[in-house]
């Protein structure tokens, strides 16, 4: 596919992106915090080219120079939002540290297979210039800037604001939102300029994240249950939509890829629900619950009912399918969203996870399964943890999945995951009728790393992916 010589990074339209060459590399954040291994986190490069002699192998590791960062999400310096600017290149990865608030800029343009550290933005610069901390998600903007969401302030209190980086120098420019406009909680966000809107989600209070998750903290108001609507041009918060109990801890949010669409979806982890959000005829925004994962009644667990804990969602480039992961129940689901108000389940695969047969948890009532699923054993390895981050190829045919959520919660809910390491899987997608199947020829076993088992979290595909690119 010939590249436009006068265009910038990415693709002209989402449908053009679906015709892109197949991805050959994936970059994965790898974490040692809370594992007992006294090593820095690192970025791994995974070969996903089926024609390559190193297919399904880690071919490079880039350790960070600091300890205990808790690398979390990563993203690009430029994407399809800069398509009209030929001076821009998708050649830097921005790695965010959830605990230290440090930002690493990684050069993947010089040698895609062997990334190198380009720059470090120290926490003190983030604190002083934006009064934000605990960095989570990022998107590149059409202006060439990089925008990063925060979970808190430098004191560990909840604060949903946004840090702006210069897209060339990666200097901190300050907070994006107007003074006094930050949301009570922060987590993820997505913007849709044609409707002059951005919508952000809510996690919880950062100082709580250093310890175990306490269920009573949710109804006590220490975690969020709303999404926040922002005026994209004025940088002000204009509406808060309370999702109620089914919307506790709304995490990942996605507009439809069509840049003219005025709707999208948000996955709520503790509430085990997916809400559709949409623009009304009056011009404001509203929500409706469109997917509900029923809790399983259990014995041998922390509570008498186990939520699915939806932790990641992604939408295919043609806006036809939505995928979600249930980290505790252990399944990945594919929904046909041709009718956005009535998603239809068309694919599902199980990894066992929290309700695997032979484990400590006994399911006493289940509206979804007749019996507990078998543990997933792939290439002789028993997969620990549940499906967490998911990332979809541009053509929608390959869904990649890692099993680590956040090291403190991994240690609490899946202690064997911390001991034996995370995994990355590839799930084949039927893009015609719908359907999912685990590729048995692909496995990245992060339990066999040179410095010991580690926790693998977020992923970015070398040429772009369905969670990165936004069109303006």
From TrEMBL:
Similarity section: Belongs to the selenium-binding protein family.
Known role: Catalyzes the oxidation of methanethiol, an organosulfur compound known to be produced in substantial amounts by gut bacteria. Selenium-binding protein which may be involved in the sensing of reactive xenobiotics in the cytoplasm. May be involved in intra-Golgi protein transport.
EC number: 1.8.3.4
Name of protein: Methanethiol oxidase
One record GO biological process: protein transport
GO molecular function: methanethiol oxidase activity; selenium binding
InterPro entries listed in its UniProt record: Se-bd
A single Gene Ontology CC term: nucleus
Pfam families registered for this protein in UniProt: SBP56
Localization (cell): Nucleus; Cytoplasm, Cytosol; Membrane
Reactions catalysed according to its record: methanethiol + O2 + H2O = hydrogen sulfide + formaldehyde + H2O2 + H(+)
Keyword Magnesium: no
Record bears the keyword Acetylation: yes
Membrane topology, as annotated: Peripheral membrane protein
Principal location: nucleus
Pathway(s) this gene product operates in, as recorded in its UniProt entry: Organosulfur degradation
Keyword annotations from UniProtKB, A to Z: Acetylation, Cytoplasm, Membrane, Nucleus, Oxidoreductase, Protein transport, Selenium, Transport
């Amino acid at each position: 596919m010939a590249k436009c010589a006068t265009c910038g990074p990415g693709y002209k339209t989402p449908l053009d992106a679906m015709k892109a060459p197949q991805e050959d590399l994936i970059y994965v954040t790898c974490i040692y915090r809370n594992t007992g291994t006294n090593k820095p986190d690192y970025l791994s490069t995974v070969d996903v080219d089926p024609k390559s002699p190193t297919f399904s192998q880690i071919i490079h590791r880039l350790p960070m120079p600091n300890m205990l960062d808790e690398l979390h999400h990563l993203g690009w310096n430029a994407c399809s939002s800069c398509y009209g600017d030929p001076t821009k290149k998708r050649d830097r990865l921005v790695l965010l540290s959830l605990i230290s608030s440090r930002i690493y800029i990684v050069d993947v343009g010089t040698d895609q297979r062997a990334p190198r550290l380009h720059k470090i933005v120290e926490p003190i610069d983030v604190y002083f210039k934006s009064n934000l901390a605990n960095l989570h998600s990022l998107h590149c903007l059409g202006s060439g800037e990089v925008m990063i969401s925060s979970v808190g302030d430098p004191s560990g209190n909840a604060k949903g604001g946004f840090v702006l980086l210069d897209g060339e120098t990666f200097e901190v420019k300050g907070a994006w939102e107007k003074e006094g406009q930050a949301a009570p909680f922060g987590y993820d966000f997505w913007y849709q300029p044609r409707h002059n809107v951005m919508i952000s989600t809510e996690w919880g209070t950062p100082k709580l994240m250093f310890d175990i998750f306490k269920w009573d903290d949710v109804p006590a108001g220490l975690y969020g249950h709303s999404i926040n609507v922002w005026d994209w041009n004025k940088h002000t918060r204009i509406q808060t939509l309370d999702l109620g109990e089914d919307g506790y801890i709304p995490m990942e949010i996605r507009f439809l890829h069509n840049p003219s669409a005025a709707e999208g979806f948000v996955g709520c982890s503790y509430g085990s629900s997916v809400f559709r959000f949409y623009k009304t005829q009056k011009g404001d925004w509203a929500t409706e619950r469109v997917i509900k994962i029923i809790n399983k009644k259990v014995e041998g667990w922390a509570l008498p009912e186990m939520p699915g804990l939806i932790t990641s969602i992604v939408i295919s480039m043609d806006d036809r399918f939505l995928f979600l992961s249930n980290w505790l129940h252990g399944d990945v689901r594919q929904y046909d969203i041709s009718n956005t108000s009535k998603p239809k389940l068309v694919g599902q695969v199980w990894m066992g996870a929290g309700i695997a047969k032979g484990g400590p948890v006994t399911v006493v009532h289940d509206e979804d399964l007749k019996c507990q699923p078998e543990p997933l054993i792939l290439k002789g390895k028993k997969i620990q943890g549940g499906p967490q981050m998911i990332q979809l190829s541009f053509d929608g045919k390959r869904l990649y999945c890692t099993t680590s959520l956040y090291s403190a919660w991994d240690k609490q809910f899946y202690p064997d995951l911390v001991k034996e390491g995370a995994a990355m899987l590839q799930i084949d997608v039927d893009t015609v009728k719908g359907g999912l199947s685990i590729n048995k020829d692909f496995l990245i076993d992060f339990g066999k790393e040179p410095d010991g088992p580690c926790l693998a979290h977020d992923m970015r595909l070398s040429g772009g992916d369905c969670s990165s690119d936004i069109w303006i």
